[in-house]
Amino acid sequence: MAEEVPRRWRDPELLVKALPTVILQTTCFLAPLVMTFLLTFQRSRNFQLQWTWDLWTWTDIFSKPHYWTILLHTVFMAVACVAICLVIAFPVAYGLATRFKAWENEIKVLITFAFITDATLKIYGWALFLDKNGMANYLLGSLGLSPEIVAFLFTDWATLLGMVYSLLAFAIFTLYLSISNIDRSLILAAYDAGAGKLRAHWEVTLPLCKPGIWAGSVLIFLLSVGAFLEPKVLGGGKSPMSAELIRQTFETRVNWPLGAALTLMLMVVSVFIVLLFSRLIGLKRAGLAS
Amino acid sequence: MTAILDISDVRKTYGSYAALKGVSLSVNQGEFIALVGPSGCGKTTLLKQIAGFEDPDSGHIAIAGADMAGVPAAKRPTSMVFQKLALFPHMTIAENIGFPLKLRQKSPTEIKKRVGEMIELMQLKTEYLTRYPRQLSGGEQQRVALARSMVSEPKLLLLDEPLSALDVKLKKVLQAELKRLHRSVGVTFVHVTHDLEEAMMLADRICVMRDGAILQLGTPGDIYYRPAGSFVAGFIGETNLVPITVTKRGEVGIDYRSADVSDADGRIAARLVAGNVGEGAAQLMLRPELLRVLPPGETADGVIEAEVVEMFGKGGTVQYRARSASGLALVVEIPGTSSLPMRIGDKVRLGFAKKDIYVFRAEA
Lengths: 290, 364
Fold this sequence. Notes:
A: 12 helices
């Protein structure tokens, strides 16, 4: 580890060097955030913003359980998405890092292509595929199965499918990096000490993947909390998630103060959950985080 | 003495590359054996077959009389100290050392007791127990790795160049430590190294390997003074190889002649001649410290006339490089306190005693 040189924050050189970042962060991140916060104290009447400076919006939010139900639903969907992504991505990443060394690059390129294809295109593709008259139903029907799948599109399951599909690559790549960074002799050492394959996996590979699992989880959680396309197209807008609610509030209802308040609510809750989990997992204690 | 490890005709091929070309080796209970050779000689491959990380293509490995074919690494009575130590970074020192016992379902109190014993044996501080490997120095990590390997009381301790990454001073300390450890626990050690000097210091027997085969197996003395060929001879320290022609190979010895050596009887006793020497070209080996600078009027069993071309002080000794009339380069090492200081350009007579030489076949 490199020695950290203690420097006073008033060091003029340091201040000048930090200036571009500070300006960028202030104008592009902090200022909009403050403006959003200030917006929540106004009101909207007849699609007009009125500078009232009161707590009407916040009272509204805290008195109607509807918003909180949607938020809870969003968080639940995001957590489910993270869990499913990890379960699918782990074997894929593990295979990529250890078994299919010869095809590693080809597979990575394919995953990347699937990943960077336009999200709208992919989601509508899924909608067409899962549609009542779509391919999936046709195939299942010809196999002699009941038309149960008809009900699949426009449910939470379809939304979840779309979210997992869009975000899976984040989990695969972060886990892949973690796994391929594990020194092979550590696994051999575990075998040598008397561990079977499963035990070595549980005692050595998994704990050493913790940073990767964590990084992937945070990325996917934050991105799925903000997902709006999937619940709209695949979920049919029947059980909206926070991002869709916020979009509607801004665009359809043209209620900017409420939209701003809902945005802040989502941000605060997401950040709180991430912090809570990082405390629970305790990366620092394991000596793995830098 | 019984053989704890019996390797017979083990072969291993990676693709088209033959890493082990039929290696046979028998190691006795409690012995310290070193596998030495340049990189790519197959020494680490052999160790992997013994540990059970890989299976040989053919041949047998038996440990304590039991055939190891199909026995996974986890079930073998062996333990490995890895080149990169392979301490688990997410476990504390206590967890690392106790890991093999935990896998053997020992009770926490017993694990704690055994870990404490190992810490004491390795002369580590008890406050390290709660630290993580990266918080320890290289030498301390080394001791932890050793402790982890010994805690399960293996029949065979396999060491895969564990000292190669350390600086010279620390290396010396840990070499002494290894020797002490071997003596105190009585476990059989198989130590892989590319450093023959290290092998000489530590091992009871040395197995010199090259290109997947064993060149020579013998005591450090054998390897140093009676090497099987110029490769083994040149592998440690410096040596003088004088080309000679064997004119007659007999029961009691050989007759020879050489452009460089003046020898009254031109005979060398059979015990100083390798078995593979026949009539024709051979090499006479002379270790630099066994060559003497002859004062005027004195003579020796064999004498080589040469001119001093270079000299190096080495502290306790001085090394001279000389060249004979035929152009043969020679190295002589004499005590720094010698009463016969030489200067570059001096003509000298270098003498040797017949008992100090060894003859082996010239290699192409």
